[in-house]
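Appendix B, example 12.
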Amino acid sequence: MSLESQRKWLHLALVPEMDFENFFRLLKTFGLPENIFSQTFSALSSVVPQSIALSIRSSLSESREQRLTEILKLLDTIPTARLVVPSDEDYPQKFLSIARPPLVTLSVGQLALLNRPTVGFVGSSHPSKEGQAIAKSWAQAILNNPVSLIQGDSEGIENIALKSAIQKDAQSLVIVTKNILSDPLCEKKLRFASENGLLLASLENEDNPWASRQKLMISCIEHFVVIEAGIRSKVLSLVREAADEGRDVMAVPGSIHSPLSKGCHKLIREGAKLVESVDDIVVEMRN
């Protein structure tokens, strides 16, 4: 993808108020971003709200322009870095299997890892010692199978599983991050992904990076495994949304006296598969 094409995809993704529906409507109506930016205000406002049409015709704010510049610099300096957009011939099929697929994603490493069966561990941000131990051991054990581990980097279960997989020097680890440019571990993650696996970061919806990250995880992960979650954990909303998109949800049972088991037990009652080992996960993934 040319530098100018990269800039236009990023510019469109960073337009204030831009969301999936309006972004997709523009692409469907006018084609590639190069064509969108050549449209008149009148033509644009016939497809999207006037505020968005005006933003497309205007320059980005200083802060958004700086972000665009930083992303372009990253794309230029890391050999395996690229933008993944729907016009790509190798746009992941997994992305297309959800209702609102990612439109602009930063990719560093081996995008082909998304062609394998995928699994990801999620759960409490404050897990028990037992939950931590499960996340550490299962993250390494699952990598002995022909799958890709898609791992978020939020605090708790996600980060514990991620670090454990990195310690194993995993070749099939995919890191999904919220905001790579503001991540203090940005350099370390980029280095790992460029040498071993894959790193993905959504570049859409700058005003709500958490929601963009969640959508990206659902796009990538076919099988979610919940290791400890409270009854009000935001993890429950993530996996329920994933289930609505046809993704598989598994949950680890625990003590009836532990608050961190309540969310998992609720998911199991709602239809999540009960798993007690990595072998159980592998069996479920084959079904």
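The first strand starts at residue 81 and ends at 84. Residues 109-286 form a domain with the Rossmann fold fold (CATH 3.40.50.450).
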